[in-house]
């Protein structure tokens, strides 16, 4: 409840300017950051640790390692695509084979917290979620450059920590259709932000659990929406960022949906489908070239 108008500052929540319209590589019209979140059972226990003893509830997350991720990786091999897999440290510790299989296929591993805990402002676990996540991935020789916040939330403490830790990019905010450079509270430059596209979150359309009951939409509805979103994005010269989950899109009907959509995107022949790191590196290069041009 707002007790006073002074409770809410009168300023934009994001102090960064409009995203620059840098060109995409090789004359392509648009880009797609193809990304997945690996949560496994941490998606269930992060809401309440007591859920760990509810084994059927836990099995929703357990599907990821048993079936979902292998099927998603099989599809990406079939289509010759590379993706980013934002992985919780808990999932890496519990299922090391998942991380090994992602790396074996040449995909990017990103940081997704340790136990998928919500990074609310002032939360005591923000630093430990970062540190333990780094430690878990380091056991596979990985120092991730990309971060996606659990539950897609962020705060000034977290994004300041990401910059301090040398992260290249974040993919959590939902306020643009192009990458941009974050601006920290002190006015300093933050990490690159690659905004996710809300309509490409498969959990919203294809997952129903006892802790989050919602209707599951048929392939035709979601495929139509995803195609339309991509077509208009191509017209804008912008980009889309997927928020897919192998425990959702690795299920039979959802995998068929994903296959049809990715085949459509490939057939467009003007969409750069790649990892978060590649998009962030491209942005960084364009940013440096723009700055150099402005100085001459």
Automatic annotation (TrEMBL):
<comment type="similarity">
    <text>Belongs to the polysaccharide deacetylase family.</text>
</comment>
<dbReference type="InterPro" id="IPR011330">
    <property type="entry name" value="Glyco_hydro/deAcase_b/a-brl"/>
</dbReference>
<dbReference type="InterPro" id="IPR002509">
    <property type="entry name" value="NODB_dom"/>
</dbReference>
<dbReference type="GO" id="GO:0016810">
    <property type="term" value="F:hydrolase activity, acting on carbon-nitrogen (but not peptide) bonds"/>
</dbReference>
<comment type="function">
    <text>Is involved in generating a small heat-stable compound (Nod), an acylated oligomer of N-acetylglucosamine, that stimulates mitosis in various plant protoplasts.</text>
</comment>
<dbReference type="Pfam" id="PF01522">
    <property type="entry name" value="Polysacc_deac_1"/>
</dbReference>
<dbReference type="InterPro" id="IPR037950">
    <property type="entry name" value="PgdA-like"/>
</dbReference>
<dbReference type="GO" id="GO:0005975">
    <property type="term" value="P:carbohydrate metabolic process"/>
</dbReference>
<protein>
    <recommendedName>
        <fullName>Chitooligosaccharide deacetylase</fullName>
    </recommendedName>
</protein>
